[in-house]
């Protein structure tokens, strides 16, 4: 989920504070110091929400562009992700208005839950897109390996490097064949991710981000330490895509 560089810096600082606060609590730091860290985290969060004013419109524009993608799966995943991101930013704007005193009657807990739900849906779409791209690349790599093997006169038992290992009824079938097939698939996945750093970075970043709404919505309690660490890692990876634009997954 792309954000402006200033927002990413505050995002990284906020989750660094969350991680630091958790570490201080575990090591018995003074309550006053813990309170100061929590206040700093809150100020950074409010500052991030201020910087996001107008991001809903940007997300809607991105969704309009994604509608024209030729691949139907990518079109669906990216468009739905951007639409959920627009709703996430809109909820964030309402939260900012409530916390800043412009709309004191806003039910912040309710809007925070809505915000994290849209955030979660957006991440699910992002990871679905990543999984789809990985599958396509694995199929391409498997076909290329098969062509190379045929050209060199080699082969793998079962007729395919990754999939045609025979069924349970073939000689030597069963669990050993299944284990070999699984091992080949893992090796193929590793080769694909190693050869496509933007895709690898996107998978890791989305996976790290996923822990945040899961924890906030109570679907999977990870604790502030894990949330802070995942948020910090995700922020650093996002900053890397700004420093090195070729690491950004396209489209």
Write the layout of secondary structure elements.
Elements: H1 5-26, H2 31-51, H3 55-66, H4 72-100, H5 108-152, H6 175-195, H7 197-216, H8 224-243
Helix pairs in contact: 1-2, 1-8, 3-4, 4-5, 5-6, 5-7, 7-8
List keywords for this structure.
single chain; 251 residues; mainly alpha; Peroxisomal biosis factor 11 beta; transmembrane helix
Mind explaining what this structure looks like?
The protein has 251 residues and is mainly α. Among the domains are: 33-106; 116-146 and 188-250. It has helices at residues 5-26, 31-51, 55-66, 72-100, 108-152, 175-195, 197-216, 224-243. The longest helix has 45 residues, at 108-152. The two termini are 13 Å apart.
The largest sheet, given as strand count, sense and whether it forms a barrel, is:
none
- Uncertain runs: 156-171
Q: Which percent range describes the beta-strand content?
A: under 5%
The pLDDT mean sits at 84
Helical stretch count?
8
Order of helices and strands: HHHHHHHH
Tell me the span between the first and last alpha carbons: 13 Å
Radius of gyration: 23 Å
